[in-house]
Structure formats: C-alpha cells, structure tokens
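Reviewers asked in the last cycle whether our approach scales beyond single polypeptides. To address this, we selected a multi-component target totalling 370 residues and predicted its structure end to end. The input consisted of the following lines:
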Amino acid sequence: MNLTEQVLHVLDNALSLQGRAASFDRDTPLLGSLPELDSMAVLAVITGLENHFAITFSDDELHGAVFATVGSLCDLVEQSLARQAT
Amino acid sequence: MSPRARAALPQAFFLATDTGQRFCLFHPPQGATPLGRVLYLHPFAEELNSTRRVVAGQARALAQAGYGVLQIDLLGCGDSAGDFADATWAAWLHDAQQAHRWLDDHASGPLWLWGMRSGALLAAQLAALLQAPGTAPIHLLLWQPVASGQQMLQQFLRLRAASQWLGAGSTGEPPPSQTLAQGLAIDIAGYTLSPLLAQGLAEAHMPAPGSLQPGRLVWLETSSAQTPSLSPAAGRQLSAWHAAGWQVQAQAVEGPPFWQTVGTDEAPALVQATLTALTHPPQA
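The resulting structure, written as structure tokens, was:
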C-alpha cells in the first residue's frame, strides 16, 4: 500500500465509511464536503493516523487547511514522517 | 419472561453518596459457579456514550459466565447527579471507591477492576488505594488504556480546535490550554471542562506497577489492521508490569476504535417516512 492508500484506509476506519474511501483520490475534498467529518471524527482521523504511522503531530501543524482534501492530509503525514526520519 | 431470563436482567439503581446519587447497573452473576466480581470504570466525556453499547454487551457476557459486574456513572457523567463542570479526578476516584464498597457487599470472589481508556488510569489508581497487606490480589482488565492523563487531555483539547476548523476560519481566540491556565473553564464538544478537572486529568498517571501487589493484568486493544498488533507504547508499559511480577496477558484484536466513533446504526424506514411526508403531503 502506498501512502495515500494507507491514509484512505485510516480515514475509512475512523469515519466508518465502509469502503467508500477506496474511490477517493488526492483531490477529494474532505472538510465541509464529507458529512461524517465532525469534530469527533476529525479527532478520530488524527489519532488514527498517529497510531497507524507511529507519528505525533504537534498542535501547531494541525489546522483546518490540513483537512481540506485527501492530498493535504497525505502531505501532513509525509512531512511528519520525513521529520521523524531525520 | 422466564424466571431465568428475569434473573439475568441488570439491576439499575442509584447509589447514594455524600455528593449526590450515582447511576449504577449491576449484572448479577449467572450459573451455579460464581467466578468473581468486576467493577467497570468508564472513559472520559463523550467516550462514555460511544462505548456504552460494546461495554454493556461485555458486561452481560461476563455476567452470563459467572461474574457479578457493576457499572457506575461517575459524578457529572451519564445519568448520575452533578454537572460535568463540577467533576474532579479526586471525586471520580472517590466514586469508584464507593462503588467498590457496594460491590463488596453484593458479590464475592476475585476482584477485577475493568477500565476503558482514561478509566484504566482510575482502575489502576483504585487498585493502589484498595490493596492492603495480606488481602487477595486485585486484577486489572484494561481496554485501550491511555498512556497518561496528559495524553487524554491533549486529545480532548484538540476536539475544541477541530470544531473551530469546521467553522468559517479561525476565530483568533487563545488556545484552550491558555484559557485553562488562567483558571477559566472551557466548553468542548458540549462538555464544560473546569480548570480543576483539567489539572487532575493532566496529573493522572498509571501507578508504577512495582507499587502494586501483583495480580493478573489483561490488556486489550483493538486494531483495524489486517494483522492486529499492540501499540508501541503498550509494549514498553507491559514489560514494566511483567517485571513487577504481574501475570500479563496482552492482545490486540480486530475491531474499530468504537470509543471515538459514533454508532453506524441506520433507520431507513424513518428516513423514507419523513421523505414521503414532506414530498407527498396528504390531500386536504
């Protein structure tokens, strides 16, 4: 699984999308477009990503723009992984 | 209803404490051989509601197997007296002690303290309070335990930030931790978090395993991975429990993070009836 697929897997589980995330791509809008994405769900996605990738986001890097699209969410994970590797 | 089915029903009651009534559910042990008693301590804020269904199912299953299981809604939570804003960590620990006293009078056998998420911290801290030289060991059943109260608090404060992202842009208000530090309460996801509770939660730690009289520790997590595995944080903690002489059983099982997701039950007939009523009004 590449990174985007892994992020979609976490997203699907956190929001109970029952496989619907499989049809998403980097351009799929999230915040404001996905009815399942309320504040509890946003938190579920964050902790889901932290657990799955064994990373920790700092509160500074978490803001609304990060949840704009699947792509922006993937970028956040990529940055965090890169920071951890250094 | 058959007498047997009636006996299996949980008993709902209010436990009187010096700070009001606490809603409790007791599942009496079934069968000829009682196996022991279990006190369940629930997780934080909305997680109590998200977890009710799974926990109730587990409590019934344990009762059927021969355990007497007591569930308590802590001060300001669920159906108990008080507001969430009035809750403190110390008051919750006190509630847990009262619940244990009730369970002590109404069931016998080995004692298990079962805690979910932040309830796991309460369970372990209660074990430390209850242990006494020469008494039977107290066992722990921990579901998805949080590493620390600080971690739980951080996740809860993020909920506030998340709800701001859903609105139109940032409001420019100070971060919640700053508001709390000024001694002010904040509202998060419908819960009023007092500075006192935030502080108590932040300072709540898992007691050092070596400070507890060793018993059995059952540590369970759920995972949505195809091959479920325990979190890296769990591994470090478990070796400390093991080294302190506890009989440790730890496992990750397949399952959703049900404490942070709302139910996925659907009611299609209700949706259809509403749609029909509003699109095909009856002829006057």
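The mean pLDDT of chain B is 91. We regard this as preliminary and will revisit it once experimental data from Aim 1 are available.
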